[in-house]
Specification:
Layout: E1 2-4, E2 18-23, H1 28-40, E3 44-50, E4 70-74, H2 80-90, E5 94-97, H3 104-109, H4 111-131, E6 136-142, H5 165-184, E7 188-193, E8 195-197, H6 206-215, E9 220-223, E10 229-234, H7 235-248, E11 254-257, E12 262-264, H8 265-277, H9 282-286, E13 289-292, H10 307-311, H11 320-329, E14 350-354, E15 357-360, H12 367-371, H13 375-385
Parallel strand pairs: 2-3, 2-5, 3-4, 5-6, 6-7, 7-11, 8-10, 9-13
Antiparallel strand pairs: 1-4, 10-12, 14-15
Bound molecules: nicotinamide-adenine-dinucleotide (NAD).
Amino acid sequence: MSAAAGGEAPGPPRGFAKRVLVTGGAGFIASHVIVSLVEDYPDYMIINLDKLDYCASLKNLETISNKQNYKFIQGDICEPHFIKLLFETEKVDIVLHFAAQTHVDLSFVHALEFTYVNVYGTHVLLSAAYEARVEKFIYVSTDEVYGGSLNEEFDESSPKQPTNPYASSKAAAECFVQSYWEQYRFPVVITRSSNVYGPHQYPEKVIPKFISLLQHNRKCCIHGSGLQKRNFLYAADVVEAFLTVLKKGKPGEIYNIGTNFEMSVAQLAKELIQLIKETNSESEMENWVDYVDDRPSNDMRYPMKSEKMHGLGWRPKVPWKEGIKKTNAIHPCTDKTPIAFAGKLSSKFCLKTSKNEEHATLPLIPTLHYRTLNLSVLNFIFLFLGKDRIMN
Ligand SMILES: NC(=O)c1ccc[n+]([C@@H]2O[C@H](COP(=O)([O-])OP(=O)(O)OC[C@H]3O[C@@H](n4cnc5c(N)ncnc54)[C@H](O)[C@@H]3O)[C@@H](O)[C@H]2O)c1
């Protein structure tokens, strides 16, 4: 474990009203959440645990890195001894668990890494948090656990039917989280959110990827027909949602964090071409689009009801036009920043998976890690995933 830059001097925890552990805090969404928590809750100590994977950047946290109520610890949620020690030394009251492998395309190529980090890592964290008797454990899941739907709107009691390895790993992790509520009444809360966009997102995800490609005078590569629709929430709205769940989320509950705003991937490409290439000509716009092979599975829509969140007083506020302008403005393109991202896109981890398409891929997790996978844990996972439908 290494404590880095800024924050507290070494020694026993000082008097803060609450000590909040945020995992994956150098990633996209959690870095926005941490900045808000550190600024808005000076009496809370915010501990950022992140292993600094390929998609992480501490630059996302530069504005708060020297604050007294912030601390960064580099470490891996998949290391039980380290995680146990962390809970013992940091006296954590609340956990916000974001850390995960998150790129759907990569999950088809590196499915076991996704199971390892997203399921086993979550179980390690959950077990240590339970032992440490933390007062709230918030698990950040995704609308993708529902699988796709054309018309049926999902609510929190809809069955989980994930259709890709990423979504399956998130659904399996949810099962572990829920089981701690069922078995021990350990106060867990699960959130399932729509696609999030905003500044600092790693350019493997569709919006920053299209922005980067267009800024480099390259075409937007669209999987399949491009008719798949996605709901997009601006990062600031999602931060508000997590702060709401932190304050008002009830133990044992699941909350959808969604929006009615949805757009097809083809339409999204058009919007970004209009914004960046400043054209409205259909034929010119077509020149900036390239249709590539579809993913092995690609859900058409994730329509979701978010009434429970509305009941807690949260609603998304930032209109698309405003959010996308802000996102584009923070993705400046110069020759010196070949990829529009605060962190570094290592060419070592770039993989060409189809025509005109580059994906950032994972550094391979050493085989040693797989040996630490407990077989009974794996059996438990496959028991859940083997079901036709995974029920809440
Ligand atoms: N981005 C979205 O649109 C979206 C939508 C719904 C849910 N989610 C969920 O929100 C969470 C955050 O998503 P994001 O897009 O910000 O992710 P991200 O990929 O930007 O960040 C993930 C972070 O987790 C860290 N991490 C990965 N493995 C780790 C490990 N073993 N130990 C410690 N840290 C580790 C990485 O270093 C990185 O900083 C994820 O759980 C994801 O499933 C994301």
